[in-house]
Amino acid sequence: MPRSRMLWRTLAPVVAVLLVTAACQQASPSQVYTGVQARTPIEKIGQNGDMKNFELVGWNPLKSDKFDLPRGMNGGITAAGNCVYVGSSIAQEPAVVLDVSDVTKPVVVGSVPGIPGKGMGIEAIEAVPDLGLLAASARAGRVYPGTKAVAMTDADKRVGAAIYDISDCKKPVMVAKIDVGNEFVHYMTLWRDPKKADRVMLSVTFNDGVPADGVDIRVYDLTGCPKSCNPKLAGEWGLRAQLGIPAQVTVKYEGGTRVDNTQTHDVTWSLDGTRMHLAQTKYGYMQIDSSAIAEGRPCKVEAAQSKDAVGHCITVLPNSRPLAAFGVEVANVHGVVQVPGRPYVLLQHEGHSCPFGGITIAYVGTDGFSAYDRQTSTLTAQGGTTVGSFRGDLMPRNVGTFALPEQNPDRCPKPGDQMPQFTGSTGIYGVDVMRSSKTVHNAIAFPDIAFATWYGGGLRAIDITNPMTPFELGFFFNKPVPEVRWCSESAAGPCDKAEVDAEGQVIRVKQLLPPDVFARSYPIVVKGYIMYADENSGLYVLKYTGPHADELPKTGICISHNPSTAALGYEPCAPYKPVK
Questions:
Q1: Predicted confidence (pLDDT) per residue in 82-95, tens digit
Q2: Do 466 and 458 contact (CB within 8 A), yes or no?
Q3: Could you give the C-alpha distances from 206 to 126, 158, 215, 236, 286, in angstroms and in order?
Q4: Which of 147, 184, 274, 374 is the most exposed place for a label (fewest CB within 10 A)?
Q5: Distances (CA, A) of 194 to 198, 416, 470, 556
Q6: Which pTM does this prediction carry?
Q7: pLDDT at position 425, please?
Q8: Phi and psi at residue 371, in whole multiples of 5°?
Q9: Phi/psi at 353 (nearest 5 deg)?
Q10: pLDDT at res. 325
C-alpha cells in the first residue's frame, strides 16, 4: 500500500472529528465556563455585592437596638407567612422577626423571647407555619474574653430548645422549654409526620461537650404544640451508648497523632421518618433506624446499650457502613440535605482549618448502580461490567465533590507560616485566604440545583444534574458592613477589649479587623427569592436568574432538612419529595 494512502487512513478519523467539531462550533456559539470562582477580595467587592446569575433584591443589616450599628453574630434562619426569623449566636442579642411582605424592604418588627444566658437559634431556628409553631435551639452563647457569662438558673442550663406560638407571626409567645438532660446541646431539627399533620418531633444533638451517658441524640414529641404543649421524650441514641466507641479517637501516624471527636453533629429525618441521616464528626455520614417512632410503635425510649439490642425507638442499621468525611478529613459532616426525587444526599463538611471543607454528593438509594443514566438522571445498575449492586442506604458511596479554589491543599500556609493578616505576607489569594474559614456551612437542594452558604466564600449556586460532575452556576459575595457591635467568632483578628456599662455588663466588643463575608445560615426560599443571614452583615434577599431557576417555586416557603414542615408530605417544599 502506498505510504500516502496509509497516512490518509491514519489521519482520516482525526480530520473527520475536526470537521464535525468545526461545524458544531459554527452552528452554535461556544459557552465559556470559567470554573468555580475564587472569593473576590473585600476591597474589590462593589457596594451591592459581586455576583453571577444573582440579583440583590433586598437587604437588612439587622442593627442593634442600643447602637446605630449592625449587631453581628447572627444565627440561623426560618420563615412563616410573611415573617422571617433570624437567630442570634450570643446571649446579649435576641432572635429577631422581620416582615418580608415586601421582599425588597425586609423590616425588623420584633424579637423572639429568649432565655437568659442562651443564644437562641445560634444555628437552628425552625417553624411549622400552618401549625403556628416555632422552635429555637437554646445553646450557651459566646463568652468574650475578659467578660462573664450571662447568668442563668440551674434549670435553664439544661434547656436545649424553646417552643413558641406564632399564630401572630410577628409576636412569638414562648409556650414551653425542653430540658434535654445536660448543657451540651448543639443542634436541633424537626420532622412532621406526613400522615398526621399535628404530630411533630424535635431532635437535639449534643456536640458542645461529652455527655456522661454517651447519648448523642434525643427526640421529643411536640404533638399538640403550640396550643397544648407538653413535650415528651420519644427516643434517644448514641454511638458511644450503643457501640461503645469512645467520645474521642486518637490515631497515631508518622510525625504525630490526631484526635477526633466521634459525636453526632446533627441529624436530618427522612420524609417518612423511618431513617435519620447522621452528620458524624469523625465517621462521616451514616443512617440509623427511627421507624418505631415514625410508625408510632411501642418501643424502648432509652438508648440501646449493645449492637444487638432490640426493641429500642432508635438503633443502628445492621451491616451498615459510614461514608468518610470530605477530602483529607479536616472537616466533619455538618449537615445532610436530601435531593428531592433522586437517591442522593448532599453532605456539607465543616472545617475551620485549611483546606477547609466542601460538599460531597452521596448515593443512598436501595438499588445498585454502575453508571450515570442521562435519561433518568440517576446512577443505575446496567449489567455487563459494573461495580456491582449494593444498598446505598447501608453502604453510601461518594459520587461527586464540589469545592472552592481556596480548598486546594497547596493554597494552605506551610508549617511555620504565620497568619497573613498580621505579617502582611501574601500568597495565591493574598492576605484574605486565612481571614475567614472558606468552608461550606449549609445548603438547600432542588432536583438539578443546590444553593449553599460558604462562610468566607459567600453564596454558591451548584448544578447537580449529573451528581458525578457538579459545577458552579453562580455566586454572590456581599459587601461586608464596615463595623459591627459584637466581634465575630472568626475573621476578626483578636477581639478588642470589651466595653462595659456602669454595672459592669458588657455592651460592646469591637473587631480589630474589618468584618468579612460570613455566609452562615441555611439558604431558604420565600416567594421564589433566596434568603440567608450573613453573620456580620444581616439578611440578604436574592433573585436567582441562572439555569434551573424554574425549579424554585414562586409561592410559599422552601426549607431543607426539616421534612414536612414547610408543606405536609414534602421537602424542601411542594411539589418536591425526596426518595427514601
A1: 999 999 999 999 99
A2: no
A3: 18, 12, 8, 11, 17
A4: 374
A5: 9, 55, 31, 18
A6: 0.90
A7: 42
A8: -150, 160
A9: -120, 145
A10: 80
Centre a 10 Å sphere on the Cβ of residue 151 and count the other Cβ atoms it contains.
9
pLDDT at 369: 55
Q: Which residues pair with 347 in a beta bridge?
A: 336, 360
Amino acid at 375: Q
The torsion of the CA quartet 167, 172, 174, 178, rounded to 10 degrees, works out to: 90
Cell match 436545649: residue?
160
* 367 Rama sector, left if φ>0, alpha if ψ -120 to 50, beta otherwise: beta
pLDDT value of residue 132: 98
At residue 284, what is the residue type? G
Angle at 229 between CA 224 and CA 230, to 5 degrees: 105
Average pLDDT by consecutive 10-residue portion of the chain (580 residues)? 44 41 42 81 92 98 92 97 97 96 98 95 97 96 79 91 98 98 96 97 94 95 97 97 92 84 94 96 93 97 95 94 79 92 94 86 78 50 48 91 87 58 43 72 97 96 96 97 88 81 88 90 98 97 98 97 96 92
Q: Which residue has the cell 436568574?
A: 545
> Quick one: residue 504, left, alpha or beta (phi over 0 = left, psi -120 to 50 = alpha)?
left
Q: What is the dihedral of CA 4, 6, 8, 9, to 10 degrees?
A: 170
Check residue 527 and give its pLDDT. Answer: 97
Pairwise CA distance, residues 406 & 442, whole Å: 18
Q: What is the pLDDT of residue 223?
A: 97
As a whole number of angstroms, the distance between CA 190 and CA 76 comes to 14
Give the helix/strand (H/E) hosting 442: strand 442-445
pLDDT at position 127: 98
Q: 489-493: which pairs have CB atoms within 8 A and are 24 or more residues apart?
A: 489/73, 489/89, 489/142, 489/535, 490/352, 490/436, 490/437, 491/435, 491/436, 491/437, 491/456, 491/515, 491/516, 491/518, 492/516, 493/421, 493/422
Q: What is the pLDDT of residue 406?
A: 86
Q: How many CA atoms lie within 13 A of 426 on its CB side?
A: 4
- Are 486 and 508 in contact, with CB atoms under 8 Å apart? yes
Contacts of 244 (CB under 8 A, 6+ apart): none
Give the strand pairing for 50-52 and 471-477.
antiparallel
The dihedrals phi and psi of 10, each to the nearest 5 degrees, come to: -75, -40
User: Cell 422552635 sits at which residue?
Assistant: 135
Instruction: Let me know: does 552 contact 558? Beta carbons within 8 Å.
Output: yes
Convert the pLDDT of each residue in 537-548 to its tens digit: 999 999 999 999
Beta-sheet strand order (sheet of 442-445): 50-52, 471-477, 459-463, 449-453, 442-445
Say which residues have a Cβ less than 8 Å from residue 235's Cβ, sequence separation at least 6: 218, 219, 290, 292, 293, 299, 301, 312, 313, 314
